[in-house]
């Protein structure tokens, strides 16, 4: 069974998504060893109370770059706004589904807050996810109903990539 990377801060979900995708593909990938370089490539950091994450296009770019340097390759397919049907389609093909979502900060609507997580499997009622909420969570299940509500309640700037093992 794959040992996925857990997120222990509020700004490195993008680099952790990249590491977990490469681990899901079957690569030996040390996030601890790669973290400084990976975070620098993604541009994630914290300055005082401000947290700087990484945008969707940059995540894809860094993921494709990092995947060139591992044994087991992947291909990234951008699918647009995530829906349960698109997530199901990717998972039924034994792909993983990388999902980003952003929402407005309740106190500071001009600042978007986002998160990246990975879906690696499903049952009829649940999705098996990696780093669903961050904060030290590894693999977790989320019901189809709750996933549907998340996609509905956080509609801005959501994006889905199907990750294919080559």
Quick overview of this protein structure:
The chain is α+β, with helices and mostly antiparallel strands and 166 residues long. It has a single domain (13-165), classed as Alpha-Beta Complex (Cathepsin B, Chain A).
Q: How many individual helices?
A: 5
- CATH superfamily caption: Cysteine proteinases
CATH topology: Cathepsin B, Chain A
CATH class: Alpha Beta
Q: Looking across the biggest beta sheet, what order are the strands in?
A: 3-8-4-5-6-7
**SSE string:** HHEEHEHEEEEHE
Give the beta-strand count.
8
- Average residue-wise pLDDT: 88
Second CATH tier, the architecture: Alpha-Beta Complex
**Helix/strand-derived class?**
alpha+beta
Low-confidence stretches: none
The fraction of residues assigned to DSSP E strands is: 25-35%
Main β-sheet, in a few words? 6 strands, antiparallel
Q: Please indicate the count of domains.
A: 1
Describe this structure in words.
The protein is of the alpha+beta class. It has a single domain (13-165), classed as Cathepsin B, Chain A (Alpha-Beta Complex), CATH 3.90.70.10. 33% of the residues lie in helices and 30% in strands. It is built from five helices and eight strands. It has helices at 13-24, 31-42, 56-67, 84-92, 144-153, and strands spanning 45-47, 50-52, 74-80, 96-104, 112-122, 126-130, 139-143, 159-165. The strands form two sheets. It has a six-stranded antiparallel beta sheet with strand order 3-8-4-5-6-7, sandwiched between helices. A two-stranded antiparallel ribbon has the order 1-2. A hairpin with a 3-residue loop joins strand 5 (112-122) and strand 6 (126-130). Helix 1 packs across helix 2 (31-42) and helix 1 packs parallel to helix 3. The chain is globular, with a radius of gyration of 15 Å. It starts with 12 loop residues before the first helix and ends with a strand. 34% of the residues are buried. The mean pLDDT is 88.
């Amino acid at each position: 069974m794959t040992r996925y990377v857990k997120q222990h801060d509020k700004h490195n979900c993008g680099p952790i998504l990249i590491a977990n995708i490469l681990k899901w593909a079957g690569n030996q990938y040390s996030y601890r060893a790669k973290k400084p370089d990976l975070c620098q490539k993604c541009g994630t950091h914290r300055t005082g109370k401000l947290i700087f994450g990484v945008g969707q296009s940059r995540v894809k770019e860094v993921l494709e770059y990092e995947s060139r340097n591992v044994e087991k390759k992947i291909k990234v397919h951008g699918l647009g706004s995530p829906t349960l049907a698109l997530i199901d389609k990717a998972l039924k093909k034994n792909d993983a589904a990388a999902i980003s979502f952003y929402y407005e900060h309740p106190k500071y609507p001009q600042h978007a807050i986002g998160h990246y997580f990975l879906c690696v499997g499903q049952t009829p009622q649940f999705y098996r996810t990696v780093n669903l909420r961050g904060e030290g969570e590894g693999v977790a299940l989320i019901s189809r109903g709750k996933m549907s509500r998340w996609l509905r309640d956080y509609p801005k700037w959501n994006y889905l990539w199907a990750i294919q093992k080559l």
